């Protein structure tokens, strides 16, 4: 049996409880069981239960949280599903590539698959919390799928890749990487630290930020930094701060 215990489907601000139930059903059909709801409009709900049919256990075990950050804080890989491409291009996966990647990575990292609101999808801040975006290649005349249909397509790709796993050739990185990937929480702390230092050395003006932090986020999302590398960077930033303080003290 396939085991997707490290994979969580995250639904952000879902308005219709029926969609939550239909997502739970799609997930259970595909063997995915962990569901996190970020501020759902109406949950728990009898309508959700009705649409979940035999996937009631997924609703009962669902975690409800206040923010997307809270939902993904311990994850090493976050993928956001979006029907549209955004202003700054972001690393993209096809649904099939997502399947292969998530099956491999979920052996060592916690993975979140994030889905947006029925009316407006995921906003830019939310999309920037993701390492990759996935777009289901729908018809240009009507690209936006129903939420549960999108969850079904993605979970199906995951299952398909899981079933084919034995035939998948490992890449060098997957075979013998020595460190876990940094979690979202660790990387968020790093961004705060980096921003502080960039301000202190007058590289970054928070009153005129341009897109500096977005671009830094995209850079480190692309790299998928590991825990050891993250510690080295944090150490460098701390030493910069220490030396700045030292230099200021000497001037006094
Ligand atoms: N009108 C919204 C779409 C919302 S559909 C928009 O333009 O963004 C609800 C959610 O289903 C989306 O946030 C996304 O997570 C998922 N979804 C719908 N269609 C998709 C597609 N073609 N590719 C990837 N995800 C899709």
Structure, described:
By secondary structure, the protein is of the alpha/beta class. The protein folds into two domains: 7-174, SPOUT methyltransferase, trefoil knot domain (Alpha/beta knot, 3-Layer(aba) Sandwich), CATH 3.40.1280.10; 178-251, Helicase, Ruva Protein, domain 3 (Orthogonal Bundle). The protein is built from eleven helices and seven strands. Strands 3-2-1-6-4-7-5 form a seven-stranded parallel sheet. The model has no long low-confidence stretch (mean pLDDT 93). S-adenosyl-L-homocysteine (SAH) binds next to helix 7.
Structural key phrases:
12% strand, 252 residues, Helicase, Ruva Protein, domain 3, elongated, Alpha/beta knot, 7 strands, 7-stranded parallel β-sheet, binds S-adenosyl-L-homocysteine, alpha/beta, 11 helices, 2 domains
Outline of the structure:
The protein has about 250 residues and is an alpha/beta fold.
Task: Please give the alpha-carbon distance between the first and last residues.
Answer: 68 Å
> What would you give as the CATH superfamily of the largest domain?
SPOUT methyltransferase, trefoil knot domain
Write down the overall mean pLDDT. Answer: 93
Question: What is the helix content?
Answer: 40-55%
Q: Specify the CATH class of the largest domain.
A: Alpha Beta
Helix and strand element order: EHEHHEHEEHEHEHHHHH
Number of domains: 2
As laid out across the biggest beta sheet, the strand order is 3-2-1-6-4-7-5
Q: Please state the structural category.
A: alpha/beta
**What hetero molecules are in the model?**
S-adenosyl-L-homocysteine
Provide the CATH topology of the largest domain: Alpha/beta knot
The quaternary state of the protein chains shown equals single chain
| Approximate strand percentage | 5-15%
Q: Which ranges are low-confidence, i.e. pLDDT below 50, for 5 or more consecutive residues? A: none
CATH-level-2 architecture of the largest domain:
3-Layer(aba) Sandwich
CA gyration radius, whole angstroms: 20 Å
Largest sheet: 7 strands, parallel
> With helices defined by DSSP (H or I, 4 residues minimum), what is the helix count?
11
Q: How does the overall form come out from the CA principal axes?
A: elongated
Question: How many beta strands in the DSSP annotation?
Answer: 7
